[in-house]
Write a structure and sequence with these properties.
With 255 residues, the chain is an alpha/beta fold. It has twelve helices and nine strands. The protein has a six-stranded mixed sheet, with helices on both faces. Strand 2, helix 1 and strand 3 form a beta-alpha-beta unit. It is globular and about 55 Å long.
């Protein structure tokens, strides 16, 4: 593996996009935001691509935001605004990818990782792992897309349970709720996700791609009405004393 934050590999008509910060549990840095945006756009411009598999290197799908950034984002408004713009662009770009996207959730999908998985078209999750959106546990509004995608998948009342508490959703429960499609043994996860992607790639592309785009109109409409408000509220979270205390609490746990 290289040290690039996002890798793209070709397997016939399938393009495999891998989050590649395994030592940070694939937490999102600004470089990773931008690299994923570039990867999605490059794959969408590839005339031979018919499906995408999205996965993580190492033991996690993605841990979401990087705790190392908390202090600087509290004090640097310009950087904070740039990161939130990147996050919005990433969610919106994923919704607008015309190719079917299969998530291979190989390990915890947390925060933005959970949001991105929930915005995919088919979600395979390892039966030993979980999804979670614990924004509130680190004093942040869940404004980066979870509040858009999750209610449409599992219903508003259930989404409130998980977004207001940050509670973990084990793989089997994620499937039962409708947040994931399949729970697979870990050693079969990637091949099962590839099989789903190949199956989609074998179908008539215009029919598959435009059916996906019609279905994603539900998400796009929700995004237009909700995402700007959510990200503005999340930006305000960075100014609170609760948010500023989070890095010290994490350090105390490690100690």
């Amino acid at each position: 593996m290289t040290d690039e934050p996002v890798l793209v590999a070709t397997d016939g008509p399938v393009r495999v996009i891998t989050f590649n910060r395994p030592d940070a549990r694939n937490a999102f840095s600004s470089d990773m935001h931008l690299a994923l945006l570039a990867a999605l756009r490059a794959v969408c411009a590839d005339p031979d691509a018919r499906a995408i598999v999205l996965t993580g290197a190492g033991r996690a799908f993605s841990a979401g935001g990087d705790i190392e950034d908390f202090a600087v984002l509290a004090d640097d408004l310009a950087l904070r605004r740039a990161r939130l713009r990147e996050g919005r662009q990433l969610f919106e770009d994923l919704l607008n990818v015309h190719l079917p996207v299969v998530a291979a959730v190989n390990g915890p999908a947390v925060g933005l990782g959970c949001t991105l998985a929930a915005a995919c078209d088919i979600v395979h999750i390892a039966d030993s792992t979980y999804m979670a959106d614990p924004h509130v546990q680190v004093a942040l509004v869940a404004g980066d897309g979870g509040a858009v995608a999750m209610p449409l998948s599992i219903g508003l009342l259930r989404a409130k349970r998980y977004l207001l508490t940050g509670e973990r959703i084990p793989a089997a429960e994620a499937v039962a709720l409708g947040l994931a499609t399949y729970a697979d043994p870990a050693d079969q996860l990637f091949e099962n996700a590839m099989a789903s992607a190949r199956g989609l790639a074998d179908l008539p592309p215009q029919a598959v791609q435009d059916t996906k785009m019609v279905l994603n109109q539900h998400l796009r409409q929700a995004s237009v009405s909700m995402l700007g408000y959510g990200l503005a509220a999340e930006s305000q979270s960075h100014d609170t004393a609760d948010y500023r205390s989070v890095p010290d609490k994490f350090s105390a746990r490690k100690g």
